[in-house]
User: What shape does this take?
Amino acid sequence: MSLPEHQTGRVQSGDVSLFYRLYGAAGDLPILTMHGANYFDSYDWAGVAAGLSRNRQVATMDMRGFGESDWSQSKDYSTDARIEDAAAIANHLDWPRIIPIVHSMSGRIGIVMAARRPELVEKLVVVDSSMSTVGGAPSVGGDLLSFDSVEAAMAHFQGREQPPRISHDATRAEAALRLEDGRYILKRDPDFGNGVPVSGGRVPVLNDANVWEELAEIQCPVLVVHGVRSDRYTPEVLERMGGHDHVTIVQVDSQHDVPAQAPGELIQAVKDFLG
Assistant: This one.
């Protein structure tokens, strides 16, 4: 697909240069989207971002180690670093407060950010993210994902129960790959799950945050958007999340890839939530 009209930019955060796309013009409180692990970068959020940018700016970032953002030389993919990355983009764009929309892997990051950085987060939208531990155990030396062709890359993801867009959208697949020495390489650091820098420096403190405890500490309103055909939330988890007065739950007709499969429902849910 051709992406809606937008600007692009970069900002330095720690040991990486972060890439982002910017939609819309200054107006209401801005939105920052953060993608998941198999929803590889800002490309996947283009349609939703454009739909939400009629009266505000919306930035869609490539998380460190993904897309056009740098791979961390120190392998710092800690929760601390990812929250600082979001804050760096907000600061770069002169946004004192933001509304994060966080999907899948980034959902847990957004919950911790809203709890620990209340001065930054006005409202939070969590899209189909499990409530497991944030993670961040040491894990380096992963194998680079490379393929003979774009079609082979798509086939690699097609067998999953909840397949990402790359499995069926050739244009999206091409954008997620770079051609190097005759091989198509996925633009994702295989060590993106490593939470402890390998070269010293920062000592992460948020990797082991209890997501349920962090959710309870959040002071701002939270919208949880759940794909009814997704496997991320059990009825028990939804009931527990809905037990918080500051949490609103909306269900949409989608598998896990909500921004691709239910963009209109997601846009409307966010608009209703923001008022």
Q: What stands out?
A: The domain at 7-136+209-274 is CATH 3.40.50.1820 (Rossmann fold). Residues 79-92 form the longest helix (14 residues). The first strand starts at residue 7 and ends at 13. The chain is about 30% helix and 20% strand.
